[in-house]
Amino acid sequence: MKRVKKNMNKKMPFIDEPTGDADAEKSKSQVKREMHALQALGEELVNLPNEQFANIELPEALYDAIAEARHIHQHGALKRQLQYIGKRMRSENAEEIREQLDTLTGQSKQAVATLHHIERWRDRLLEDGDATLAELVAEFANADRQYLRQLVRNAKKEMLGNKPPKSARALFKYLRELM
Hints:
Elements: H1 2-8, H2 13-16, H3 22-25, H4 28-46, H5 50-54, H6 60-69, H7 75-89, H8 94-105, H9 109-128, H10 130-139, H11 145-160, H12 166-178
């Protein structure tokens, strides 16, 4: 019993004295979760289409690691490369990379808000017609009034005839380009 009592009286530095180091205060599980999140972010970057990957700004070493992973097809080798990408990302600003990725994939709040704004314009054009069209042309001077009228008229006919909304899609696409 003395031995147990003697050991229990010892001061445990990792419990009683905070080290001040942020990593030492994180649990092992938290560190693992963060590493897996960085690997998942790296995997999203690897799976991006070529056009979107070319538009993202990354440090050279990280860019090279991701470019190499895009050419690997063996499961084990790809897994090792993704772990390496996760390790490289620890020294980079992951939040900035995440924001760029979200913007490119259209998941950012700004991109979603823009799409909703365009949808509201399209719906207003289909409901109100000429009054909303005049308002749109006043706001966007380079809008083609005649083409917009034609798209609105065709979209209304499609809605009444229960046909696929080809003109409504074309109207949305034109409004997106316009805005």
